[in-house]
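Hi R.,

Here's the chain you asked about this morning:
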Amino acid sequence: MKLSQFKFKLPEEKIALYPAKYRDESRLMVVHKDSGQLEHVVFKDILNYFDDKDVFIFNDTKVFPARLYGNKEKTGARIEVFLLRELNEELRLWDVLVDPARKIRIGNKLYFGDDDSMVAEVIDNTTSRGRTLRFLYDGPHDEFKKALYALGQPPLPPFIHRAAEPEDEERFQTIFAKNEGAVTVPAAGLHFSRELMKRMEIKGIDFAFITMHAGLGNFRDIDVEDLTKHKMDSEQMFVNAEACRIVNEAKDRGNRVCAVGTTVMRTIETAVGTDGHLKEYEGWTNKFIFPPYDFSVANAMVSNFHMPLSTMLMLVCSYGGYELIMDAYNVALKEGYRFGTYGDAMLILDK
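And here is the predicted structure, written out as tokens:
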């Protein structure tokens, strides 16, 4: 398939700038793959589509406050620094993006905090916007991380055109976030409240947790029309034995296995064996899923409504069927669904 097949007109006002008042009260469109039927319900009604011993797979990655603002030495120019990943604990080295990049060269120092208490030196250029920073901090590593993160803000995606606010610290994070390392939140997981998950437990639904540290590559523009030539950024992922046991037993019983979000789907499709069972995995993946694609593990999926031309939309179309999902997106636009990370959700059922 071609990039242009995933283009649609998304008015700016359809992109959610803020989350729903309550996590589980976003709208939910239910897409039945076998009949093509669409239902419109509230997210907490998802409970009605699952039974005892069905399984939901969640991504328990935790977003860290990756967006910092600092000032360049001498000129005082304001510089945005986006933390990507820590390269070396001992040396305090971080892989970052800087903006405006043209002002930042090797050897420059950047100052952060009202009192310039955090200082970093640029020691390498990696890409046009990428740099390696060495933070000049003498204390213990835990103390350094705490001080660094205290300066940061939640890294809202580029299509949310507003500054981060205090509420985002809680809402730009799933309630089950545990393993720190993501620079964007696995959005489908945002709809699950503690109350809803308790009700799911009471109904006998099982939970499996994997970790994929979602990166900025999820928002990177694809610059090739031929999708086979697009390369995804690598993201770190972990699938443990317990998750494998829960998922594989459900598959063997014939229960529903629901992947919550595109990061979960990419993780389990990376870690699946030739027998269709989930395998333990620790490493990196750059798996890019676009139509046509045969899925091996999940037979249900939760996802948000994604941006045009995005790799997330391509994966959802792979799972739900290109024509059915694009038709569903047209219906969502007419029915006033909210798009993006803080938007509404879709549940796709195989049968």
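One quick note: Helices lie at 141-150, 168-171, 194-203, 241-253, 262-270, 311-320, 322-334.

Cheers,
M.
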